[in-house]
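# step 3/5: fold
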Amino acid sequence: MPNARRRLERERNVGAVVFDLDGVLVDSEPIHFRATNRVLARFGQSIGEAEYRSFIGIGERASWTAWCAQRGITVPVAELLAAHTRARLEEIAAGVEPIAEAVALAHQLHAAGLPLALASSSTRAVIDALLAALGLGEVLAVRVSGEDPEVRASKPAPDVYLLAAARLRLAPAACVAIEDSGPGVSAAHNAGMFCVAVPNRWTADQDFRDADVVLESLRYFPLLVL
């Protein structure tokens, strides 16, 4: 396994685990994809899956700014973000698909007494709705949203992970991040965290060179930290 020596040295003193949300704990990209097209349809526009996948992980404001520029949409981005949030909340209310092994892992780590946090670029309303649907509201009480005022830049900037570490009252180097996207992995790496990548079908073709470990499944994750 690459970086095995660094992995073993650092993981002897794991202080906390920081989860990404979309694509890690819940298969929510189909929800976001449908919601995005619902908003774009108001302007006679759409986005294909291949283009959408290329934006996964970089943050909503940056994505919508680019999509508007490419399509000549002049509505303020803030209005589109609000519409996108409303559309996603409607999709979430219709049902979500948990990533069972990741949800079970969060419960397992929480039961073992390991501090946990969530670091996501999503809006607070979407984060709260998804965690409630997953039954993880109490397990992941420490949360960072891309809307938080301390977050000046979206992934791959380290802001969300630095803020998560601060709220955990730990040094970033004491935290292990779990990510599914290349920009997310780079954000955790740039924050100084050890990062475990778990790519999925939406992100498998992204760049994971900044990951310390790439796993096919989170079922092996407890071997790293417990």
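# step 4/5: annotate
Residues 26 and 99 are 5 Å apart (CA to CA).
# step 5/5: archive (pending)
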